[in-house]
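Agenda item 2: pseudouridine-5'-monophosphate complex prediction
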Amino acid sequence: MMNSSLYSVLPEIQTALRSGRPVLALESTIIAHGMPYPQNVTFAREADRLVRSVGVVPATIAIISGKICVGLNNEQLEHIASDKNIYKVAVRDLSHNVSNGFSGATTVSATMRVAHKAGISVFSTGGIGGVHREWSSSADVSQDLHELGRTPLVVVSSGAKAILDLPKTVEFLESLSVPVFGYKTNDFPAFYSCESGIKIERRVESPKDIAEQFETHRLLGLSSAILLANPVPREEEIERGVVSVYIEKALVEAKESGVCGKELTPFLLGEIYRLSGGVSLKTNIALALNNVNLGARIALALSKNG
Ligand code: PSU
Ligand code: MN
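Presented output:
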């Protein structure tokens, strides 16, 4: 059980978890630092509605004044989405934020850790963090990868964000023993685009398939996550050639402005939003909602098996 001085779990989620009903974890950095206000709140509300429409309870994870919240009420969601002083919290930032009573949005890594502690098995996001380009000089590798290597959940994402070095990210996932499955694809998705050209050996065709894979993974006592790579719906994708022009420009801008570390990903996403005239946000929302829908169906399939 989780320590109640540190955690606050919405009663609805507590009840669902106790009775084995399906729950889907959602992160909050995508809301606070990945999308502009107010489109981010609209996205979060739509995600919530979508999860419920499948018969699953949504659990958005964030830190509110030092309390780790599993599930947010409307006011808390609005706060996370609109307040400019919300911290970006990865696993290494968790204890610092809690002990100082700060409010923070959790990244993929911190969300995974909290979701697992709460007893949630499935988590949907947009795109995981990974190995940044120019990693050999910056050594910038997201904590998301390490967390995927040590926390057993099904994580649904549209591959890794296209701003990254995708071949190295995929290699790194292998080094960390993370099984990667393509959802109806053998190509690792490139976030805004359906394909990256990188092959995925394993493929599943239904929520039930991946639920079974995860059951076996758990039975074997394997401690890593399973990453399910779900491409953006074809009609919403931005062509690779088009995206790469935005990315190159955004990377130059970041270098010239000296942006690095945890500010880099939000900065690049913001620049791509500007350069694409807002199209990238529409695609980001479409791919994230598609992952939320699939994640909810996997949570449902797992609860039926269990
Ligand atoms: N997916 C999105 N938008 C985002 C993110 C994911 O569509 O903003 C966030 C996740 O919280 C992920 C973070 O963990 O970006 C990666 O940050 P970094 O590269 O600093 O590890
Ligand atoms: Mn980083």
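Discussion summary: DSSP finds 13 helices and eleven strands in the chain.
Owner for follow-up: CH.
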